[in-house]
Write a structure and sequence with these properties.
The complex is a heterodimer of chains A (226) and B (458). By secondary structure, chain A is an alpha+beta fold. Chain A folds into two domains: 31-107, Dna Ligase, domain 1; 111-225, D-amino Acid Aminotransferase, Chain A, domain 1 (2-Layer Sandwich), CATH 3.30.470. Chain A has helices spanning 15-24, 38-48, 77-90, 136-139, 153-162, 167-170, 180-196; strands spanning 10-12, 32-35, 52-57, 70-74, 102-107, 113-122, 126-133, 144-147, 200-210, 215-217, 220-225. In chain A, strands 1, 6, 7, 8, 9, 10 and 11 form a seven-stranded antiparallel β-sheet that branches. In chain A, strands 2-5-3-4 form a four-stranded antiparallel β-sheet, covered by helices on one side. In chain A, a hairpin with a 4-residue loop joins strand 9 and strand 10 (215-217). The longest helix of chain A has 17 residues, at 180-196. Chain A is globular, with a radius of gyration of 18 Å. Chain B is α/β, with parallel strands linked by helices. The radius of gyration of chain B is 25 Å and the shape is elongated. Chain B has three domains: 23-146, 3-Layer(aba) Sandwich (Rossmann fold), CATH 3.40.50.720; 169-307, Succinyl-CoA synthetase domains (Rossmann fold, 3-Layer(aba) Sandwich); 315-451, 3-Layer(aba) Sandwich (Rossmann fold). The model of chain B is unreliable at 1-17 (pLDDT under 50). Classes of the chains: A alpha+beta (226), B alpha/beta (458). Chains A and B meet through strand 8 and helix 5 of A and helix 9 of B.
Chain lengths: 226, 458
């Protein structure tokens, strides 16, 4: 659901700011540091504990992985320092033509089920909250559910239940069930953010890793009116 | 003159005399046809003729400065010459003359106008300006407007067919449509089947009265039990949400403009902002509005919602004379989350004593080709206490089939393969307010509407 900013009147919040805003709504965001040198990246990896993910932070790059701006499962602080350099070397277009605020070093979340929670502000309907399953489910099958806020936790859970892939959340073939209440809380918080921040045009928490207990937001994009 | 707008509450005793601001559109005391014509191909003739032939009981005044008499009725030369007490004007004159006519109608005390004429916002900038003039004239004089660019209003219980084609069958489904043809088609089907309608309103350009006003009216209309609407967009979302939240009658909507090209077409058809389809899905779900994907689904759902009682649960028993139809119904029931429960042992035992040996005593219960109305009735009576809903399929020319079914009972009736007998019995069933569906698929899918919002969080 992420589109390029409409005209020039909107901008993507830097990811660290987006995560900070979400944490303010008591949502579980992945532990992270912003590094501006390879040494800082290594130190961040040491502080957070490996494995870590490295992601380039630039308002001009909303789709970081499309341009080689992401490294996952980096195993040691030394690798983190090396990954810092590699990302900047291989980035297209070249970093000299971009505004780069640094590289976000984030702890890798424990494996789980990838879920998306988002919000779009429609000119006629106002804010609409979306939930879906990550990966091919949202891209290939467009398996998503929408609601117009206000949103109750019960209704947010009903949205998750509406997904065609809902069995993946409730324990399919011996997989443990996901914490639906924690996911519902993310959707409700997004609805509240939309109500309390009229400048926010779009929120894309993609993915949230859902676990048997709780969930973790590992990537967040927030589009605001400039 | 006494305006009937607003709510009059007779205090001091339990009788509440209530009226609605749109009463003058649905139940006018008298009607003027502005632009009535002697030319049979013109709407000014067709609509006047339909009003007269549908059996409207109040006075009808053709207005035309050039004719002395139309369809045997003396003409009034101008709106100013009309007698007092005319509630509704149907306006069928060239667009450029409409703003003046609306102003004059207001001065004469006419409460509402249905503007059939086209040439307004749908036809470009000049038309949009004219439409703004109409709205201003209406606001100044307090006249409510349906249209312009619409196919009129038909309220069969009031004998008012200010529309075309001429349809008079009374029923309990109200039809609201942003397309005249789509609405007329629904009403035509309902008339043909003797299901009938309580109202048809063609919205046209919605310069004043919109779908929300109509839902607000129909929610309190005693003849209406279900509301079916064809919409390309919703004019005022906030008000729509408020009014629909307060409406206790089932609403089913066929919303078009779901694709990019469809949205573009909706914009040029009625200037509707068609909007993102998934947001309409969310809105409808949250407001407990049934969504139809086709015109047939809209009709079937409205029929089921208006006439079928709420089920107590999902356990169904299919009783059929056609094995194939029973299996088709069973597949659709399973796909739709209904429970095709087995016959309780003692009930099956009792039925075996009751039925010819070649009948299949199971669910579906197949009476085979010689299922008579008498046999059906025995089985229906014996099994009714054990299931939440009976799906009764008549799959042959079964005489007196209409005597098997009971209005208001939890019975879904499907009739097919019965030719002339089927057509007669279907009409009889519809006259006793038992809806009949033409195929197992359409029947079951309509029945499932009654369960649609079970378990949906508010």
């Amino acid at each position: 659901m992420t589109r390029p900013p409409a005209a020039d009147r909107t901008r993507w919040l830097p990811e660290a700011e987006a995560l900070h805003l979400l944490a303010g709504y008591r949502l579980p965001v992945i532990a992270h540091r912003l590094a501006t040198t390879p040494e800082e990246a290594a130190q961040a990896a040491r502080d957070l504990g490996c494995p870590v993910a490295l992601k380039v932070v630039s308002p001009e790059i909303p789709h970081k992985s499309d341009v080689g701006g992401v490294r996952l499962n980096v195993a040691t602080p030394e690798d983190a320092a090396a990954a810092f350099t590699t990302i900047l070397d291989r980035l297209t277009p070249h970093p000299s033509r971009l505004t780069i605020q640094g590289i976000l070093v984030a702890k890798m979340a424990a494996p789980g089920t990838e879920v998306i929670v988002g919000m779009v502000r429609d000119p006629q309907f106002g804010p609409a909250v979306m939930v879906g399953l990550g990966g091919i489910f949202v891209e290939l099958y467009q398996d998503v559910a929408f609601r117009l806020p206000p949103l109750t936790p019960a209704e947010a859970r009903a949205m998750l239940g509406e997904l065609k892939a809902a069995p993946l959340l409730t324990g399919y073939r011996g997989r443990p069930p996901c914490d639906l209440d924690a996911l519902a809380a993310c959707a409700c918080a997004v609805a509240r953010m939309a109500a309390e921040h009229p400048e926010i045009q779009e929120i894309d928490l993609n993915p949230i890793i859902a676990h048997e207990q709780g969930c973790m937001i590992v990537d967040a994009k927030i589009l605001v009116q400039a | 003159m006494l305006h009937r707008a607003g709510f009059l509450l007779a205090t001091g005793h339990s009788l509440r005399i209530m009226s609605h601001p749109l009463d003058s559109i649905f139940r006018p005391r008298s009607v003027a046809v502005i632009g009535a014509s002697n030319a049979p191909e013109k709407f000014g003739y067709i609509i006047l003729k339909n009003i007269l032939e549908a059996g409207f009981r109040g006075p009808v005044y053709p207005v035309n400065p050039k004719a002395a008499e139309i369809l045997g009725r003396p003409c009034t030369p101008s709106i100013a010459d009309l007698p007092p007490g005319v509630d509704l004007a149907v306006i069928i004159i060239p667009a450029r003359a409409v703003p003046q006519a609306v102003a004059e109608a207001g001065q004469r005390g006419i409460q509402s106008a249905i503007i059939i004429s086209g040439g307004f916002a749908e036809s470009g900038e000049a038309g949009a300006d004219l439409q703004r003039e109409v709205v201003e004239a209406a606001r100044r004089s307090g006249v409510r407007i349906v249209g312009p660019n619409c196919q009129g209003v038909n309220t069969p219980h009031h004998g008012l067919c200010a529309s075309w084609p001429l349809l008079t069958e009374q029923g309990e489904i109200a039809v609201i449509s942003q397309s005249g043809t789509v609405g007329a088609a629904l009403m035509d089907w309902a008339s043909q089947e003797h299901v009938g309608c309580s109202a048809f309103v063609s919205l046209g350009n919605r310069c004043d009265v919109d779908e929300t006003d109509l839902i607000d009216y129909l929610a309190q209309d005693t003849h209406t039990r279900a509301i079916a609407a064809y919409l390309e967009g919703i004019k005022d979302l906030d008000r729509f949400r408020r009014v629909v939240s307060g409406c206790t009658k089932p609403i089913v909507i066929l919303k078009s403009g779901r694709t990019a090209e469809g949205r573009r077409a909706a914009e040029s058809h009625t200037r509707s902002l068609a909007g993102r389809d998934e947001l309409y899905t969310a809105l409808f779900l949250q407001l407990r509005i049934h969504r139809a994907d086709s015109l047939e689904e809209l009709y079937d759902a409205a029929k089921a919602l208006a006439y079928l009682p709420r089920p107590a649960g999902r356990r169904i028993l299919t009783i059929t004379s056609s094995g194939g139809s029973g299996i088709l119904a069973t597949d659709w029931a399973e796909w739709s989350g209904l429970q095709v429960a087995p016959l309780p042992g003692p009930v099956a035992e009792a039925l075996r004593g009751l039925l010819p040996p070649h009948c299949i005593v199971a669910n579906p219960l197949d009476l085979t080709g010689d299922g008579t109305a008498a046999l059906y009735r025995k089985v229906v009576e014996a099994t009714a206490p054990h299931f939440d809903y009976q799906v009764i399929i008549f799959g042959d020319p079964i005489l007196q089939a209409a005597d098997v079914v009971t209005p208001g009972a939890p019975q879904l009736v499907i009739f097919l393969g019965g030719a002339e007998v089927e057509r007669q019995e279907r009409a009889r069933m519809h006259q006793k307010k038992v809806p009949v569906f033409p195929t197992p698929e359409r029947g079951i899918r309509a029945l499932v509407r009654l369960f649609a919002f079970d378990g949906v969080a508010a």
